[in-house]
């Protein structure tokens, strides 16, 4: 049985992983002043963050259209027995609904759409776990039976320099904004029901690093990713801190956060996503 795995550009997976696992990527659209770009296709994460400071208006994103999914599904059904499509949380984007509409339009029960209920590399880690199961030769039914267990073991935290982008983009619960309005505060965010919520605050990145260490050390971790907003230096500092301070040694996936998530997190975002062991 051949299975094609597809995700959207919000998953923030590095290109080399997409290529090595043969994962299809469907881009969301990024609106920057009067220009439109397909995320990760027409604009790289580096280009997005470089343009951010010069914008006259806040950047915006729009969901993957049903027709984008229809085109991908019809093409891949000619080559593969089954398709698994994993999307950004349905509470954060209409992309999941677009994929469902496209599945219905194509009219094939060989298409399986999965709502990740997480964001960024949280979605990416779910995709990678499914990709491993495909490599192991699992059937589509065996894989789908494991998805909820995998989702329950994915956790993620973010720090941002400001909640302004999240608030203006409607991607954070309003009750969280009071934390971000405090002077010299770095908010620490979690994802609840597919939306970001501020859960803690710190006054320095040293404090944020200590929080991340405690978060990862809560229980054994299978995979860990560090995502950054075009700030590899900050990501590497966190990796070095983890190498020294974590109770277990890990191989890290380090990823530059793309325009879809960058529009709402803004510059300075730092992200840790993990899959815990069963």
Describe the protein in words:
The strands form 3 sheets. The protein has a 6-stranded mixed β-sheet with strand order 10-9-8-13-11-12, sandwiched between helices. The protein has a 4-stranded parallel β-sheet with strand order 2-1-6-7, sandwiched between helices. The protein has a 3-stranded antiparallel β-sheet with strand order 4-3-5, covered by helices on one side. The longest helix is centred in the middle third of the chain and has 15 residues, at 121-135. With 278 residues, the chain is an alpha/beta fold. Residues 175-180 have low confidence and may be disordered. The protein folds into 2 domains: 3-152, 3-Layer(aba) Sandwich (Rossmann fold); 154-276, 2-Layer Sandwich (Hypothetical Protein Tm841, Chain: A,domain 3). The protein is 39% helix and 26% strand. It has 11 helices and 13 strands.
């Amino acid at each position: 049985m051949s299975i094609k795995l597809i995700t959207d550009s919000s998953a923030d997976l590095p290109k080399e992983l997409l290529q090595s696992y043969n994962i299809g990527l469907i881009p969301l659209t990024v609106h920057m002043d009067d220009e439109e770009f397909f995320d990760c296709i027409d604009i790289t994460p580096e280009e997005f963050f470089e343009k951010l400071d010069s914008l006259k208006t806040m950047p915006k994103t729009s969901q993957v259209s049903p027709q984008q999914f229809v085109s991908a599904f019809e093409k891949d059904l000619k080559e593969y027995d089954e398709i698994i499509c994993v999307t950004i949380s349905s509470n954060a984007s209409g992309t999941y609904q677009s994929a469902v509409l496209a599945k219905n339009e194509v009219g094939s029960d060989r298409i399986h759409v999965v709502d990740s209920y997480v964001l960024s590399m949280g979605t990416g880690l779910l995709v990678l776990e499914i990709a491993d199961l495909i490599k192991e030769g699992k059937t589509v039914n065996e894989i789908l039976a494991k998805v909820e267990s995998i989702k329950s073991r994915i956790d993620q935290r973010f720090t941002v320099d400001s909640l302004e982008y999240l608030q203006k983009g409607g991607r954070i619960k309003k009750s969280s904004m009071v934390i971000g309005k405090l002077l010299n505060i770095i908010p620490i965010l979690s994802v609840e029901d597919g939306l970001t919520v501020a859960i803690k605050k710190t006054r320095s990145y040293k404090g944020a690093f200590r929080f991340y260490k405690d978060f990862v050390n809560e229980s054994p971790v299978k995979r860990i990713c560090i995502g950054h907003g075009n700030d590899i230096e900050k990501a590497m500092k966190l990796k070095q801190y983890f190498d020294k301070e974590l109770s277990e040694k890990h191989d890290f996936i380090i990823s530059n956060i793309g325009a879809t998530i960058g529009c709402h997190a803004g510059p300075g975002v730092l992200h840790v996503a993990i899959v815990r062991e069963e």
